Amino acid sequence: MSDPQKQLVQRYDLVTPMLPVKDQILADFERILMSGQYILGDEVRLLEREMAEQCGVAAAVGVASGSEALYLALAMAGVRPGTEVITTPYTFEATIEAIIMLYARPVLVDIRPHDLNIDPSRIEAAITPRTRAILPVHIFGAPADMDPIQEIAKRNDLQVIVDMAQAWGTLYKGRPCGSMGRMSTLSFYPTKNLPGIGDGGLIFCREAEDAERIRQLRGHKALWINKNLYCGWNSRLDEVQAMVIRHRLARFPEEQRDRDRVAKIYDDLIPKANRLAVEDLDRGTQVTYHQYWVRCKARDRLQHRLASEGIDTGIYYDPPLHHHPLMEYCRCEGSLNQAEVAGREVLTLPIHAALPFAQAERIGKLVAEFLVRQEEAVD
Question: What's the pTM value of the predicted model, to 2 decimals?
Answer without folding.
Answer: 0.95
